[in-house]
Each structure stands twice: as C-alpha cells, then as structure tokens.
Design goal:
This protein has 341 residues and is an alpha+beta fold. It contains 13 helices and 7 strands. It folds into 3 domains: 1-17 and 29-109 and 316-341, no CATH class; 113-168, no CATH class; 192-300, Chitinase A, domain 3 (Roll). The strands form 2 sheets. A 4-stranded antiparallel sheet has the order 4-3-6-5. A 3-stranded antiparallel sheet has the order 2-1-7.
C-alpha cells in the first residue's frame, strides 16, 4: 500500500459527450431506476485497484488496458516468471491509470474539458496522417480489441492530459534567448543543420524493478524490434504496445528534431541511422526504446533569426518532458493514493 499526503480532490465527469436529456415516461423512468440500481450494485462488488483522492481505479480497468500486452506473457514457459511478468505489467498499467486520474482531477479543478467536436477533429487528423477511412479505422481498432467508444475515451484522456499539462506545466517552462543562442552556436552556426524525424516504441521499466524485470523488459523490446524488422507496421505496433502515452495515439511519432533533444544513447543511434532503419532496443532513463528513422533532412546554415523559433520550440518540448515528471510526482505527494491491487 502506498499512502501519501491528503488534499482536496475533485472527481471529474466521466461523460464522453454532451447530450440533452430526453423526458422519460413513468415506465421508462422506473426501468431506468431499476437498471441504475443494478449497475450500482455491480460496481460496488467490483474490486478496487486503487483509490486516488475521492475517485477509484477499478481492477477491470487495469485488466482491460493490460490485455493487449499480455500475449507475450502467456507464451512464457516458466510459470513463476509468467506470473511475475503479469504482475509487473499490471503494476505499470495501474501506475499510468493513477497518473491519468490525477490529471483528470486537476482538469476539474482547472475547469478544463474536451468537447466531442475536439475528439472528432483529432480522429480526422489521425485518419489523415495514416491515410485511412472510417471503415479502415474501425477494422484497425477491432484488431487491437478496441471499440470506437473506447478509442474515443482514450483520445479524450490524452487530449485532456495535453491541456492540463500545457496549463499547469507550460508556465514553468521558459526558454531564454541565451539558451536559444547557445544551441545555435553548438549545432547550427558553422555547419549544416541536420534534422531527423523518428518514431519510437517505448517499453517502461517500473520504479524499483530488479534485474529480472529489467531483462524481461529488454526481451519484450527485442521482440517488438524483431516484429518491426519482419515487416509489421511500426505505427500499429506503437499504438498497440508503447508505454509512451504522449505519442502512442500518433503511432509513436516524435516529429522532427535536432541534436541535444534526446538522451545521448538514443541520439547517437538515431543520427547514425538511415531513413527506414529500425534499431534498438536502447535503454535510456525509464525504459527501452525501439526506434524507426522516418526521414532525415540537411539544410545549409541559416541566420539565427530564421531558426530561433524552431530552436525555442524544440528546447521547450524537451523541458516540458522533464517538468511533467516533476509535476506528476508533486500530484502524488499532495493526493491520497492507496494502491490495493
């Protein structure tokens, strides 16, 4: 059990869309009450995985999120290792769901929300990026064991997370003109500017993991690398198994970036790759990365004034990632988190 300092916590709305309620007839109202009571009774007896402030994370939610990643676990021949790996996987999923709930509660405090129209726009953008239509999207989701409803719910959480972090963390990130100029002098002033676009699948290592768990994580990342090299669609793999919530919906796309934007171990590998190469797994910070290089472009040196906005944006993104980790740790300290699973 993990207990931390108590603070006021607001339970967010679980609604996925805003619909005007229809008037109910007496019989329909009575039926709704009966069904509502049945659902409430079923919910009471369901196992609670964690209490987060005034909200709960249900064991069924953990199992649902872990299910797509359990395939490799069930094929492990050693029953003890299989059980340990399954427990570690559930712990990682629960950890992410706790972070999501903390952010949802912050969204309620900050009075932030995501509309159905914003979710629609996000889905249209994802379809455009992947060059697919509605039927192809539904088929892809079906292959991942997801419905359109659960996919929209995931998108809503990701969009809300993005908004909360922009408001709560964005104010902490301030890239000075001196930092921009220092980056320019190191990488762009007297040499060609190399930018790469990459995608990744991230396999997280849980906090406090022992050598056995780390080795299992590395083996999991190696299997993903093997699948990608065998011809499986990299974006599909990222959407199915990546632990990076920030890029998972976009197929692991990291966008274009220059040097000094990634941990050194990853940067050295990426900038030595050719477009289409898939490499890894490489360990950095909290886990293992499998990387695909999508594109590389080289431009002649440009004056600082022409590139300073791009540099500032890249440096800001890097610092946002660092500040997000700090922010989530702060939320856990000020909110009651009781893990029961």
């Amino acid at each position: 059990m993990q207990r931390q300092g108590r603070s006021r916590s607001v339970s967010p709305s679980g609604s996925l869309r805003s619909l005007a309620p229809r008037p109910l007839g007496l019989a329909a109202a009575a039926l709704a009450l009966v069904l509502g009571a049945q659902r409430a009774e079923a919910r009471v007896v369901e196992k609670i995985a964690a209490v987060v402030g005034e909200a709960v994370v249900l064991a069924s939610e953990v199992e649902e999120k872990a299910a797509p990643m359990m395939g490799d676990v069930t094929r492990m021949p050693d029953p003890d290792k299989r059980a340990a790996r399954a427990a570690a996987l559930r712990h990682e999923v629960l950890d992410r769901l706790i972070d999501d709930e903390l952010i949802l509660q912050q969204a309620a405090e900050l009075k932030l929300s995501i509309s159905s129209e914003q979710i629609d726009a996000s889905i249209e953008e994802i379809k455009k990026q992947n060059n697919i239509d509605d039927d192809q999207l539904r088929e892809a989701l079906k292959g991942q064991g997801m419905t359109m409803g659960s996919y929209r719910a995931d998108l809503k959480r990701q969009l809300l997370r993005f908004r909360v972090l922009n408001v709560a963390v964005g104010s902490r990130v301030n890239i000075s003109d001196d930092e921009v100029k220092a980056y320019y002098d190191r990488h762009m002033k007297d040499m060609a500017n190399v930018q790469v676009r990459a995608s990744h699948v991230f396999i997280a290592i849980p906090a406090g993991a022992d050598a056995t768990v780390v080795a299992e994580k590395q083996a999991q990342a190696q299997k993903i690398l093997d699948r990608a090299k065998a011809g499986e669609d990299f974006a599909k793999l990222a959407r199915e198994v990546s632990d990076d919530a920030a890029t998972r919906a976009e197929g692991g796309d990291l966008g274009y970036f220059g040097k000094d934007m990634l941990p050194k171990a990853i940067e050295e590998m990426v900038f030595a790759m050719k477009p289409g190469d898939v490499r890894g797994p490489v360990r950095a910070d909290r886990g293992f990365h499998v990387i695909k290089l999508v594109d590389r472009k080289t431009t002649d040196p440009k004056p600082l004034d022409e590139v300073k906005d791009d540099i500032r944006m890249q440096l800001r993104q890097k610092d946002m990632e660092r500040q997000t980790k700090i922010y989530l740790a702060e939320l856990r300290k000020k909110t009651l988190v009781d893990i029961r699973y």
